[in-house]
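Dear Dr. H.,

I hope your travels went smoothly. While you were away I took the liberty of generating a structure for the chain from your last submission, since the lab meeting agenda had it listed for discussion. I wanted you to have the full record in hand beforehand rather than looking at slides cold. The sequence, exactly as received, is reproduced here:
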Amino acid sequence: MAAEPSVQPPAHISNPGTLKELLSGSIALMKPVTWFPPVLAFICGTIASGVTQFEFVTVALIALGALMSGPILCGLSQVINEYCDRHVDAINEPQRPIPSGRVTFRHVYVTIAVLTILGIGLSLAFNMSVVYLTILGMILAVVYSAEPFRAKKLGWIGNAIVAVSYEGLPWLAGHMAFAPITQESFVLAMLYSVGAHGIMTINDFKSIEGDRLMGIKSIPAQMGADWAAMSAVITINAALLAAAIYMLGTGNYISAAIMVALGLGQIPTQRKFLRMSDPRARAIFYNASGVMIFVWCMVVSAVGIRS
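The corresponding predicted structure, in token form, is as follows:
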């Protein structure tokens, strides 16, 4: 078996430089582009909880929860994944902070420690339910990325862990930060986690070659681009349809109708996505055009069960 590529940072960056450079390296590790889904899920959970008094303290807590869910906890999971994926990134994305030598391993360790402390500290501003969900999210981040678990190697299981961490847990935390969880909110959180599984499949299109080389059984690496794309679309549509049917069953007819209309509106985008031949272009195209429909359905259903 071929030796893994070395990604040890070069000696000339052992002293990474100014505070600005250190912060820039940490933010690059945390991948800000990934923060939006958990932030939105937390806000949807807050809406679903039925909070009606948007006083200063309530707004401050919502902002604190959004900071915790996105930049801190999602950022933490990304740093852990960047570190554990450094050999794969050396093949797929050698410009990433670790394989390019932009950050040292010590920089990574300090960033993980700081984000862990901040995440648990911010969760204490709410209640113990939120603290437990925060700790569970941290555990899932390690199980997904790190050996000996490395659930990322098992595409279906790994995607499920990320989907629950990105959508389900933040939604539940947003709700439980302000009120006891309800059946409707829990069911929707789980359904949107299923839909996020399909989105995670699309995100894996960018690393098919490296995943195959490193033995990571992502869904695109296992099934090929065409079948993986079909699987992702079916998963997303099934989740949205189930959520719309559930809203209909709970008497939220207007919300259900809007969700169905939104779902139908994404069909042209999905048809184009399925016809595209370039796997990387597929992921970029669908993330830019199709995921927003999923996001709006989340908001509509959260408002529906609140009213």
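Two observations you may find useful: Residues 19-306 form a domain with the Tetracycline Repressor; domain 2 fold (CATH 1.10.357.140). The chain has a mean pLDDT of 88.

With kind regards,
E. W.
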